[in-house]
Amino acid sequence: EAVMRAPADGYTLMLGYIATHAMNPALQKLRYDPVKDFEPVAMVGSSATLMVANPNKVKANDAKELVAMLKASKAPLSYASAGNGTAPHFAAEMFKLSTGVDMLHVPYKGSAPAVTDTIGGQTEVMFPSLFTAIPYVKAGKLKAIGVAGSKRSELLPDVPTLKEQGIADVDVSQWYAIFAPAKTPKPVLEQLNKVINAVLADKSVAKRLEDHGAEVETMGLDQMRSFMAGEQVKWKQVVQAARLSAIRAGASQRL
């Protein structure tokens, strides 16, 4: 909201991501409009979403075993999210739609407490970003079930995608992009886009992002606008298909 109200001169920018500018607005009415109140400036990159489970609570080692376990269970397992309308929330709902299983949504105020409770066993499953999950997977505190994306991660090459395991339509790449206030002049946006894309072309910058589980992605201004329009449609369709609402999603909230 602060950026939305800032002067449209190119000096105030924000790093937004899939939840702030696509998922959350699809789920509930906010005090900002992701399209009308902002100008997309440049894409930065994306991080795959990883399905993980508590290794002590979930004996399944892959998605097929987990689906069978969920279908056989008398009570649904719980899955943690970073909050209503976030990528972990939507990824889990897409998983439910694709497999027909039931899981109880437990939204938290951010990824950190959600991951902490999944490790502690208060919740059993989660769909954090690769960046968030990798340290805990490598330490054995979380079990990697599958990548909710189009390809495997080079950081976890032995973990197959959910699609490889027979579960389609669960592709949630968490993208990050730079935005400016609405009505920022086009020449300013073009210059910012050019400079940011040049920075991302630097191999040391790309390597730094890759080391944290993200891949560089660059787009021109027209590509950005087209991409953003597609994201608005995509996640509204997920909300409708899963029959999600902000009130319903918050009903099981523990925090």
Task: Give the terminus-to-terminus CA distance.
Answer: 24 Å
Q: Mean pLDDT, nearest integer?
A: 92
Helix content: 40-55%
Low-confidence stretches: 247-255
Largest sheet: 5 strands, mixed
Strand-residue fraction? 15-25%
Order of helices and strands: HEHEEHEHEHEHEEHHEHH
Largest beta sheet: what is the strand line-up? 5-4-6-3-7
Shape: globular
User: If helices are DSSP runs of H or I spanning 4 or more residues, what is the number of helices?
Assistant: 10
- Give the number of DSSP strands: 9
Would you write up a description of this structure?
The protein has 255 residues and is an alpha+beta fold. Helix content is 42%, strand content 19%. The protein has helices spanning 2-5, 18-27, 63-72, 87-99, 111-120, 130-138, 186-200, 203-211, 221-242, 246-249; strands at 14-17, 38-47, 49-53, 77-81, 103-107, 125-126, 143-148, 174-181, 214-216. Helix 2 (18-27) runs parallel beside helix 9 and helix 4 crosses helix 9 (221-242). The two termini are 24 Å apart.
Gist?
By secondary structure, the protein is an alpha+beta fold. Helix content is 42%, strand content 19%.
Characteristic terms for this protein:
255 residues; alpha+beta; five-stranded mixed β-sheet; four-stranded antiparallel β-sheet
